[in-house]
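Re-running the complex after MR caught last week's input typo. The corrected sequence lines follow. Everything else is unchanged.
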Amino acid sequence: MERRDRISSLVGLALAVFVCFESYRLPLGIGNWNDPGPGFFPFWAGLLIGGLCLVMYLKARQTQSPDPGSWYVREKWKKLVLILLVLLGYALILERLGFVVSTFLLLFVLFKWVEGQKWVWAVGGSLAVALVFNGIFDKWLMMQLPKGILGF
Amino acid sequence: MEFVSNLYLGFSVVLQPQNILFCFLGCVMGTLVGVLPGLGPVAAISILLPSTYRMDPVSGIIMLAGIYYGAMYGGSTTSILVNIPGESASVVTCLDGYQMARQGRAGVALGISAFGSFIAGTVATILIMLAAPPLARVALIFGPPEYCALMILGLAMLIYLAMKSMLKALIMACVGMFLGGIGTDPIHGVERFTYGSYTLLDGLGLVPVLMGLFGIAEVLVNVEQVVKTEVYKTTIGRLLPTREDWKKSIRAIFRGTFIGFFIGVLPGGTAVVSSFASYIVEKKLSKQPERFGTGMIEAVAAPESANNSASQGSFIPLLTIGIPSNVVMAVLLGALLIHGVTPGPMLIKKHPDIFWGVIGSMYLGNIMLLLLNLPLIGLWVKLLKVPYSILFPMILFFCLVGVYTVNNNYFEIILMILFGMVGYLFKKFGFEPAPLVLAFVLSPMLENAFRQALIMSGGSLTIFFNRPISLVLLLTTMTLLLLPFIPGFKKIPKEETR
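Corrected-run output:
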């Protein structure tokens, strides 16, 4: 765990430097305790993050415990990346292709390619969910869902 | 007399057909997320938050509240039958609940959990009705320095009670403070960390942050781990506890109820902490402490009562002072603000329908949950068998649709994915997201209160130390944060629960 703590504390330190620097650069700046400027709160938050991460880094360097191994499961990382890409893809196609088509594609890819379900379930299940929830959101809850170029 | 008229108002609100429906929906959803491992009440409330936007505020809050206390009921089912806590407040129920199931007493364990939860929920609701109005009157004398000090105490309490590392919890709270500050500065109107994004002008949205950290991140971790839900092969058997079981449990239920309520009311108090605390108390009071962990019924009854009582007690600081005591309440605060309702001492006067309606719904919800959790237990056990490979695409779908429909803005989906990745890394590197979310929600309120206090005092920080309530709150905060550095001080004897 100490190795992981060292890595996370260094990331935290980088974040702290960024936050403090950017707070300082804001128009009207940090101000002071008696007259705080717009950068005051973020600056102090950044300074505290930095100080605490430094303490964590030093503590992690002082202690030694057995290495818990890799922080991710080697066999599964491709699956996680695929899921994230599918989610990102949904964000990008939703307004272009509309709710029904995008949702069908999202669920089909997740059921078929990520989880390896049977074709019948992947196609039928995805289509059913897309149509049923389009009915619920669009017709019942009157939510504004994107129609896309296909018009539904 | 005031008590009766308030009760009447509460029931007249909750017994309207649409409110009965939404209370029922909340209880069903809560039991569902409580039963299913890998999906907690925070994730469920976040996912369903956007669906309440078009509802009447009372109906929306009644449904979201039902999810929270409903999850406390449902959580015990998975702990007892599968030995995996359905949600974190039921961790301690696994110890003796699962052992009872192995001894063929699964039904009795489930029964006493449901009855205990019902008694605790009902008593807690009465306590809320009695305690909330006087507390709201006291809160009226609070000014910006007191609010500022109270929010800092709430954060400090959550950090102090962090399950993992206090240092990491403190870092998370600071990150939450920074994230809460993104957007337009409330006093000078300066854009902070927006980098030209229109979406960020109003600050980071609560929904994408929550859904990312609790919804997407939980799915990513669970997909990696493969949640195995093998229901212990035993007949559930009779659900009604015997006279002997009641004799052993009834005191534990009432002790759990009061411990849970007290912890729930405290700033930073969570249902998880209350269940651990009540288990420890029962073990200390027991004549056979060595038998804890072997299937003692009081060790199931007490924590299950405590977590229910705490979940309802935690509504007090939110509804009367306007300060959320834990992350679920922070989400509910966000929901109230989105509906244009500001919780606080004036809520009882300005929106009595919401205040007493939510409290009235707790009575109704407890009865619904008892009926949902005992006669329908077989249905929930069947749900446990739904494979995660079917469940997680649906959770992801609800997250995506939920976050998009808030503002019809696809950039918020991207923000949610980003927070999902960050939340996954937080879990892997041992950081708890709860202090971050609480600080994120409190940050704008804290900043406003701090600056208003300075304006009041003409720029002097002494205002925080000259006022007695603020001084006491700040001294308590300092004591909490310094306690772990005192040599020989023992924080929470977690090992006693093992």
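None of the earlier attempt is carried over here. Residues 2-25 of chain A form the longest helix (24 residues). The mean pLDDT of chain A is 86.
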